Task: structure prediction
Amino acid sequence: MAGKATQKRAPSKKTPRRVMVIVHGGGDIPEDYYNNLVNAIEERLGRSFDFISVYYSDVVTGRALGVAPLVSVDSPEAKEFKAKFEKQLRDTHARNQADKRARGIRTPRSGGTILDNAIADTINEVFQYLFNPSVAGAVQARLVEALDQATREYDEIVLVSHSLGAVVSFDVLRRFASRYKIAYWFTLGCPLVKLVKMRCRDTVLGEVGAPHIARWYNAYDTNDFFADAIGACFHAPNCRVHDIFVEVAPNMPAAHDYFVNGETQDMLAEAMRGNDR
Result:
């Protein structure tokens, strides 16, 4: 099946210097997931900009044709992963909330059904990507297709990857970053540290870093228990991760929706202002 990288507008006659490539997170995501984010950035810029969206929700949820069936989520392997991942999420949440209380900050409760649903909505898609090679290959191929297109048609790329999309981007870039000129890489609500702790990923950066990736910014909210500051985990002489705290929402699942966050939108708009210079 051909990749579903889509472009909202046809490129202008004069090829812009930068293009944004947007990668969504896990879950049952609509194909036009990027609309509100793009509109918010355009409002800040006072103009339109070119972008390519990468869509893969149909793959991780089992709707895509030509991809091997999803791995059973009732298998022993799935149950072990889900138990370990859920523990990572709950431990992160408890640790962050305890830290806030120690500093005298009131913390709204994110327990019971809300917490359970927020975990369940994403965990199965993460499992399919990590443990089903056919799913992983199909998802990564869509990102590669988008990055290849961006490289053919533009001078620089601003890569914006959310949640599971950040893991997909990490997997692709540490193998193929030398093929691209990425001016900015934004990871939003990134769960990579948790996957490293579970030994589902390692800290080898491969081709990630200068000169292929000029700047790596990681935005996280401590109320988002999928996210972490990651700079201490991923580092190399030629690659520095800049962790940036943003306050998305006081509890889950809203705290994981970085695309609606004003601070995040400001950062992305600033990255795209490179076209104006």
